[in-house]
Amino acid sequence: MDHLTILYRGPLSSCDYDCPYCPFAKRRDTPAQLRADRAALERFTAWVSACDHPVSVLFTPWGEGLVRSWYRRALITLSHLPHVERVAIQTNLSHRVSWTADADLTRLALWATYHPGQVPYERFLGKCRDLEARGVRFSVGIVGRPDHLDAARRLRADLSADTYLWVNAAEGRVYDEAETASWTGIDPLFPLSRHPHASRGLPCRTGETVVSVDGDGTVRRCHFVPAVLGNLYDGSFRTALRPRPCPLDTCDCHIGYVHLRPLSLYTTFANGILERIPAHLTLPQAQNDTHTRAPTR
Q: What are the boundaries of the signal sequence (predicted)?
């Protein structure tokens, strides 16, 4: 196998935020559920560690993983393995970031999301600046809700010029041209998120070089197609890996449509596919915004 990209999602579903657009807001896992999640993650980490081929991993937990020590340890461990090309995680940055000092920063990356109303702005911005000072590779994002627009503009002005700020279209929202222009002024790639992508019958890397894995090791082509390809731990998934078209009418999530071959997003994101960092992109500058860049700390 030349390379396998794995999107891992264990049973963890607890989160310390209560975003109104998220079904997992303020959910609490029981101690037994947390122990099961930890055991599942440690089993997965051991499997990746024993691989004899290149692997990249994106952790996509329903909840917030980095407040749990076992996720931080997994990221550190995997980042030091020579056959792991990239290990990344989606996070709200509510955790301390000093743990990244123990990771190999040539392989580690973070996909961070800012949730206005859940964390003081200066605290989140401070975490971003801390990551930047440490040399951690990361992107920052926000959901494109009307009440988030001012916060997004402020964040774009205050982040460093080479930090990509992505905008996810709010689920179910129809954007008019004026709204689209506003969000595109913040994220030039926002139009990719504006509408679901027609995908049925289109060639996709999922199920071939990209797979989704749950806590039991069940392998599917992606998070959005329920058909099972096999199991990670008994190796039964390997014979199912092959080129295949998408069976769904549409794909509306970045971690899904980035792998659709006709969109050519592997060229757009190059080695930043998992952490959502474009290879070459002229980012909006702050001079046309009413906000000014806060002084560097």
A: none
